[in-house]
Amino acid sequence: MSSISVHIDRFCEALREGGASPHTVRAYRGDLEQFVGFLRGELGLDDPRLSEVDRLAVRHFLGTLARRGYSRMALARKLAAVRSFFTFLRREGTIGGNPAISVRPPKGGGKLPRFVDLERMRAILDSLPGETALEVRDRAVLELLYGAGLRIGELVRLDVSSLDLLTGTVRVHGKGDRERVVPLGRAALRALRSYLLRRGELLRRTQRPKDPDALFLNAWGGRLTERGAYGIVRSKLFLSLGSRDAHPHILRHTFATHLLDAGADLRAVKDLLGHSRLSTTQVYTHITPERLKRVYVQAHPRAERRETEEGK
């Protein structure tokens, strides 16, 4: 049976054809190459073959990473990559069974998604400059990422026609080419309207725009790329949040956390985020200090009395 490495390119190509984002394809490829590297280094297999991989090899791989300090969430993602890879090969008839199908990630405390508290988020957005066309664009990018919980790849794929300012919604093409309609808040709508008034300034910077329908444009009038949008978000968040948290996905985490903190239904948040499974959304149900305080004041029999006595 052929070596594992020769099948990774086919699998990644199938992911791309299925609508997976470039970021997802890179992540899966990286996880699979790490798995192959483990088989070579830890098991002494110079050219690992599919027939040499069994359930114990997958468990050994995850156990080794767990001892190196990988979080449960990271282990689950790597297992998902390996499992999906072998599912793909089984579906194509290359192998007869999936050695990773019954493997579970090692137990341990996974890391909760990091997010920005409400007051700091307001301060960051309110401090953004809005004089030049690029500054107005940047404000709209951050307001939309936070206000609609978009992935960075979803944002840069938006066209002007994706917006419906009359109903205050945006039509988003997510993972797996799944489409969803997300409502927009007043702040995001205000930022988008301001940007649309200045968007023509960017479009006129090139005589022959390659993608004139793109919603977000770069400084040369072309469609803003994921790398470009990432750089914008990082530069705007860096001073307030530092290097660790200055990335687009923290705005998506913050969007979900703030909705759930305010009492939003978990299933509704799942649909807004474009998750296919409720279990993916449940990671955002962590208890924040604000929620703990609210529950305490509302539920503890001594909380109301204490406040009354303090008011005397």
Folded structure, characterized:
This protein is mainly alpha-helical. It folds into two domains: 5-91, Orthogonal Bundle (DNA polymerase, domain 1), CATH 1.10.150.130; 118-289, Intergrase catalytic core (hpI Integrase, Chain A), CATH 1.10.443. Helix content is 56%, strand content 4%. The protein is built from 14 helices and three strands. A three-stranded antiparallel β-sheet has the order 1-2-3, with no helix packed on it. A hairpin with a 4-residue loop joins strand 1 and strand 2 (169-173). Helix 6 runs antiparallel to helix 8 (186-203). The chain is globular, with a radius of gyration of 23 Å. The relative contact order is 0.09.
Task: Kindly list the characteristics that best describe this protein.
2 domains; mainly alpha; three-stranded antiparallel sheet; hpI Integrase, Chain A; disordered C terminus; 312 residues; DNA polymerase, domain 1; single chain
Kindly report the CATH topology of the largest domain: hpI Integrase, Chain A
The first-level CATH class of the largest domain is given as: Mainly Alpha
Number of domains as seen in the coordinates = 2
The total count of strands amounts to 3
- Structural class by secondary-structure content: mainly alpha
The average pLDDT value, as a whole number, equals 86
Instruction: List unreliable stretches of 5+ residues.
Output: 305-310
Tertiary shape: globular
Q: Look at the structure and name the CATH superfamily of the largest domain.
A: Intergrase catalytic core
- Physical arrangement of strands within the biggest beta sheet: 1-2-3
Q: Helical region count?
A: 14
Estimated helix fraction: 55-70%
Query: What string gives the helices and strands in order?
Result: HHHHHHHEEEHHHHHHH
Estimate what percentage of residues fall within beta strands: under 5%
Characterize the main sheet. Answer: 3 strands, antiparallel
**Terminal-residue CA separation:** 81 Å
CATH architecture of the largest domain: Orthogonal Bundle
Instruction: Report Rg.
Output: 23 Å
